[in-house]
Amino acid sequence: MSERVSHLKRLEAESIRIMREVASEFRNPVMLYSIGKDSSVMLHLAMKAFYPSKPPFPLLHVDTTWKFREMIQFRDETAKRLGLDLLVHTNQDGLQQNINPFDHGSSHYTHVMKTEALKQALTAHGFDAAFGGARRDEEKSRAKERIFSFRTATHAWDPKNQRPELWNVYNTRVKKGESIRVFPLSNWTELDIWQYILAEDIPIVPLYYAKERPIVERDGTLVMVDDERLPIHPGETPQMRLVRFRTLGCYPLTGAIESPATSLEEIVGEMLIARTSERSGRLIDSDESASMEKKKREGYF
Amino acid sequence: MAEAVPDVALVTDYLAEQENKGLLRFITCGSVDDGKSTLIGRLLYDSKLIFEDQLATLSRDSRKHGTVGGDEIDFALLVDGLEAEREQGITIDVAYRFFTTEARKFIVADTPGHEQYTRNMATGASNAELAIILVDARQGVLPQTRRHSFIVSLVGIKHVILAVNKIDLVDHSQEVFERIVADYRSFAASFGFETLQAIPISARYGDNVMSRSEKTAWYSGPTLKEQLETVEVADDLEQKPFRMVVQWVNRPNLDFRGFSGTLASGSVKPGDDLVVAKSGRTSKVKSIVTYDGKLAEAFARDAVTIQLEDEIDISRGDVLAKATERPEVADQFQARLIWMQDDHDLLPGRPYLLKCGAKTVTATVTELKHKIDINNFDHLAAKTVQLNEVAVINLGLSEPIAFDAYEANHETGSFILIDRLSNHTVAAGMIDFALRRASNVHLQALDVHKASRAAQKDQKPAVLWFTGLSGAGKSTIANLVEKKLQAGGQHTYLLDGDNVRHGLNRDLGFTEADRVENIRRVAETAKLFVDAGLIVLVSFISPFRAERRLARELVEEDEFIEIYVSTPLELAEKRDPKGLYKKAREGKIKNFTGIDSPYEPPENAEIVVSTAEKSPDELADQIVAHLSDRGYLSAPKD
Description:
- The complex is a heterodimer of chains A (301) and B (638).
- With 301 residues, chain A is α/β, with parallel strands linked by helices.
- Chain A has helices at residues 7-25, 37-50, 69-82, 92-96, 105-125, 140-143, 190-200, 264-273, 291-298, and strands at 29-32, 59-62, 86-89, 129-131, 148-151, 179-182, 211-218, 221-224, 239-244, 257-258.
- In chain A, the strands form two sheets. Chain A has a six-stranded mixed beta sheet with strand order 3-2-1-4-6-5, sandwiched between helices.
- In chain A, a hairpin with a 2-residue loop joins β7 and β8 (221-224).
- In chain A, α1 (7-25) crosses α2, α2 (37-50) packs across α7 (190-200) and α7 packs antiparallel against α8.
- With 638 residues, chain B is α/β, with parallel strands linked by helices.
- Chain B folds into four domains: 8-230, 3-Layer(aba) Sandwich (Rossmann fold), CATH 3.40.50; 237-322, Elongation Factor Tu (Ef-tu), domain 3, CATH 2.40.30.10; 329-440, Beta Barrel (Elongation Factor Tu (Ef-tu), domain 3); 450-629, Rossmann fold (3-Layer(aba) Sandwich).
- Helix content of chain B is 27%, strand content 28%.
- Chain B has a six-stranded mixed beta sheet with strand order 2-3-1-4-5-6, with helices on both faces.
- In chain B, a hairpin with a 2-residue loop joins β17 (351-356) and β18 (359-372).
- The longest helix of chain B is centred in the first third of the chain and has 21 residues, at 36-56.
């Protein structure tokens, strides 16, 4: 290894190699686009990987209808700016049953509106490979997942039965109905992501930057009142507070942090001295023990 | 935390510093009993403290975190409770962990070292540049230490740290340490490690892990952290011959056609003469395109898109090289293989899919040479290979591929085998060398000649001219010789007298003139096949010396091997396999050699075989040995 090449360049090249492999070997790949910072980096890498061509696959966003409005706006602008094909899927059954994070609990809601919705979309389009922006440093069960992670025809992950993955030689063989989730950011850390956003000047959703936003505080979590659908409990009054988000998801389930950070450097500085792990801002992970592994086995990203 | 206001200038400096850090990927080998989890926990924990100390300066509201000095923290608990997961029956083969020190970033492949050790270790080690091999100071070098070290060397890791752990439990004894190190060095001598640093440590108490221990004052070498931060793992990838596997043909519109891939080794710049290894087509680099602009030069590990001056046929899986430094191209090679499948053994003869670089072909194990006992490195004869076993094999492919020896280039020398039914990855392989040196013959599309064809077939072309009485056994022996040659990978063709008379020479009779013309045509045909690089077996009675001389003179001096199949007439007549002698004796056939037409035995035949004394099989062996001894069965060296 030459240390002439910075670790970011090495990570970038590794991700590009993974993406090209997928574009070449799969019949019908798709990129899961969650609108967050990792997705932004993944998308930027895809633009690099195939340049001067456009990425030869569409983006897929699973819309629970509870995303922050700024996320949806950013999503549509990004697809337009880059000239990419964007597919949006919502679980219509769930929508008709009005499955929401308040009445059904975050676990059931996530299962129906995210996991089931994703499976519906993958099955409907017949995608045989789907890129996801997950990183191994995020969470326990990710640390042991392959870059090319096999899924059965029912989209299930079997951690006992993973294919050995050696060198850069990826086994991409699937039978009809089976698929592979591909994680090109596997070896990136959170700091790498931020450094790369800074170095490459990659646009991210403004929610990552501090701003006065209407907030109610619930069990120590700062929830943003993004629209009128958020039930306001007795005694609660939304207050304007200077906050930002470290991770983005469905707004009723995503906790804000109080922060004055309005620049990338300040965000990175805050992140560096933060002691809470990144996903602590997401309520779903603490909902059940070992919840992420369970969700992943069921087909969650 | 919310009040911690970072100083932007400090953050910028810090990031610049991070940006310039190198990256080291390593693997830890050892079982839980050796203290592996404790060591990894210690590294993650201590580096995090250092990280935070460093970061404290970033915040005007700096606070001190952590509880340094708590000796009784169970570091193993930090490593995700792998044991608990094992109890649930989940096989976790490799988990990846990340930490940073002031000098480098690290990615650790953490492989639990129990039953699945070979497969897991090989998986984790395949992308590692260094291995930490843990030894319990109380136990010394154990069989598992040998196993781990063997696998580390098998996948080509060149840098090793021998961490002699639990040194506190042997009273920090220098003598114990040195005895273990001497033991280790004696068996690891043949493993080709470029650096081997032994360090006495206590993962539990931190001795010589992140900081130097006073309790081992006799030890003057680096701490584990120092060794990880400073060991020179820079390989010479950039100095090696240029290789790029074409992953994707980049064709956004009719005006642009580029070849996307990551440089496996070497460097390339516009104007360089490139060759497509397999087809031999050449062109020049027109430009090296990236999203960030065109490059004046690209180096190993860069992901680029190369545009060429000429429209030549290139597709995914092709290997681009410099015209003067080409990889091997062959459809047979020897390789070392780690079998990774638990419900099926490797079976020679069974077809698998082989993926090397971006090329997938069908492959069959043509020969299982031996297994390697990973405990004592002995060679064991075997008919199959089972989970976690290592074997040396020959592979035959459905079509030639371009590759290098694994030793020379890990990327172009490694492959996986995939089961065609289950799609499982069943083996990892490392190529040793091509079986036919074929291959050193890089196709020159415009200038292919006899020598290049012969070299491609890894043999010296020749005519084996079998002469002898009818019924002497020429065809039987020639058939056996051809079978043996073909089994040995030679390219052959057999011209049999009777068969040729049914086709090419069916207009000829048995007059003297026709017999001469018969031989002339056969000799000319043999010459064409020799020109094509083949070993040609001609089985003809050819009774006259003159005719045989004619055949001999058509080809070059050492390309004609006259084989006299000597059989007494009585014996041939007794065998009479086609009933011809009987007919001749009855006068139904005229001019029959040996009856009413003479046979002139050769005076200077290269080989004489006597069918009265030996079996056809023994005689065939004798002929193959003759060829082998005289260098006909491999490409001429010059």
